[in-house]
Amino acid sequence: MPNANTLCITDVLQTIDFPVRSNVQIRKGDLTKQKVDVIVVCLSSDILREYVLQAAGSDVRKQYEKGKRTTDQALALWSPVLPCQQILFLPWVPSQHDVLLEQSIREFIALAIQYVLDQNYTSVAFPAIGCGRFGLDIAFIAASMYHHIIIEKYPINITFVIQPSHQEVFDAFQRAQASTLAVSVLPHMWTYTNEQRTLRLPLKINTVEYNTIINEFNKTMFGQYTRINRIERIQNERWHKQYMLHRADFKKSLKMNTEKFLYHGCPDVATSSIIQDYFNRSFAGKNGTLYGHGVYFSSNAQYSHAYAVPNKHGERCMFFARVLIGRTTLGDNTMKVCPKQYHTTTDGQHIYVTYHDTQAYGQYLICYQ
Question: Which UniProt keywords apply (predicted)?
């Protein structure tokens, strides 16, 4: 039983709901008839592209064919017969691997919305990309598109337009919306010292939260350090929301909770980058490649200690992170991505390797000597 000054580690994860975004809609309809500033057309969809060009008129088709002779990138055109201000044709290359597929979806949406913002427009309509001839998982596509929009808090009105005959796609987007509403995101103990919402908040010594982290750390690091300088709670809302949505998807598909608290040691110069930009693929291989080219975590803090390179003052930094293990398999140094049907690779003992940017959340940063 924990004493009065500590909690079980899962007890520090109580959460509150984040507000629903009212500027995101899902509707059945015809993309070409949407009264928005910009409609987005995926160039990989031959059927949709031809349908939009037919509806936009012969002048737009001529401009499109001329434009595609000089670029294979984004192309924006205006049609006098459509209610939108611009038709934005964007390339998209799908992948059969979930990590790469989700990344490509995020990039597709981000590129489109950046164009909308740059042009000072306020509304955009997207089709459901990849839900036709590519044979991709419709539920995965819907969740990836919808969750990205919700997390990024784009200051424009966004509509997902689903063809009326594609009921299964519409249902998938509705489920993605429902899962977002059900996810609780921000831990109740998060506090801020200013209006800018501090990303790194030092914990007060001898609080229940502080003592809980120390007790966990000491299970595998007792006697291996001289002092704890501070423990910082990481309060990155955007990262945390992405992680929690990813966690909800894992629980739904796997029918179990595979989350673990694990350690990740790193040089102190890397901590700010991680806190700002997550454990992304740029950190792949930093702690070895023996079990795969991903980001390494361990349940043994003493193992991660070897990678917590001391700074000039002798201080080391180690993340105490929440990690989604999912289905795991023995890794090797040839693995650039996680094998299909698996979510992590492992040494079979205490090491886990992730391959997705939001598969882990650095809940705490332990700074010690």
Answer: Glycosyltransferase, NAD, Nucleus, Transferase
User: If one looks up domain 187-368 in CATH, what number appears?
Assistant: 3.90.228.10
Q: Which residues have a Cβ under 8 Å from the Cβ of 50 and sit 6 or more positions away? A: none
Residue 199, amino acid:
L
Half-sphere exposure of 338 (CA within 13 A, CB side): 26
Spatial separation of the C-alpha atoms in residues 337 and 287, rounded to whole Å: 16
| 202, 167 contact by CB (below 8 A) | no
Q: Domain extents for the chain?
A: 22-182, 187-368
pLDDT in tens, 296-349: 999 999 999 999 999 999 999 999 999 999 999 999 999 988 998 999 999 999
Say how many C-beta atoms besides its own lie within 10 A of residue 340's C-beta: 8
- pLDDT digit string (tens) for 221-241? 999 999 999 999 999 988 888
Q: pLDDT at position 30, please?
A: 96
Please state whether 204 falls in left (phi above 0), alpha (psi between -120 and 50) or beta. beta
Contacts with 226 (C-beta within 8 Å, 6 or more apart), sequence order: 368, 369
Instruction: Please name the residues in contact with 122: beta carbons below 8 A apart, sequence gap of 6 or more.
Output: 37, 116, 156, 157
- As given in the structure block, the two tokens for residue 118 are 């740059």
> Of how many residues is the chain composed?
369
**Has domain 22-182 been given CATH number 3.40.220.10?**
yes
* Eight-class DSSP state of 80: T
